[in-house]
Fold this sequence. Notes:
Blueprint: E1 20-23, E2 26-29, H1 30-45, E3 51-54, H2 59-75, H3 80-87, E4 104-108, H4 123-131, E5 137-139, H5 146-149, E6 157-160, H6 163-171, H7 176-190
Helix pairs in contact: 2-3
Amino acid sequence: MDYLxxxxxxxxxxxxxxxxxxxxxxxxxxxAAAALRAMLETAKREGVIIKALSGYRSREYQxxxxxxxxxxxxxxxxxxxxxxxxxARTLARPxxxxxxxxxxxxxxxxxxxxxxxxxxxxxxxxxxGKSAHKFGFILRYPRMxxxxxxxxxxxxxxxxVGAEAAAIITENGLCLEEFLHFYSDEFIQRI
Length: 191
Ligand SMILES: [Zn+2]
């Protein structure tokens, strides 16, 4: 598994080629699953309970989400093309979500059952900001990087990239696109 894989509006998630495992109630790629378990256990020991809300999603599931949303907007009066354009602002097309490759997890506070827009204000988010990179996770869609990621700020969406890349990305305030553009050759030579 290439943990630095770029999955976005242009690049599709690979179909298969990885093993899924349960971690804290969600399915993730095996190494990402072990990292998530270690991260949430450490947070808990430090008095912060973090819930894993959503991990791997199949392409078919993403397809259903996409259809539901576009059909709702289409029946509300938008043309199909407009409905797809609007939906693409908040939802990845089937095969183009990081959740399709088993390396992304949405995190929340223990009582939440959906993603929280105000998650960045919580102790859980502060703890993750300090510690997630030590476990190989990065905040994948940071604020002020929307022009590079193409995705609105998502304080809940964490992506596994491995601890070395996560440290460089976090310490330098980068998003994954910047890291891949500027640092990956150097990174690959170093290891
Ligand atoms: Zn997500």
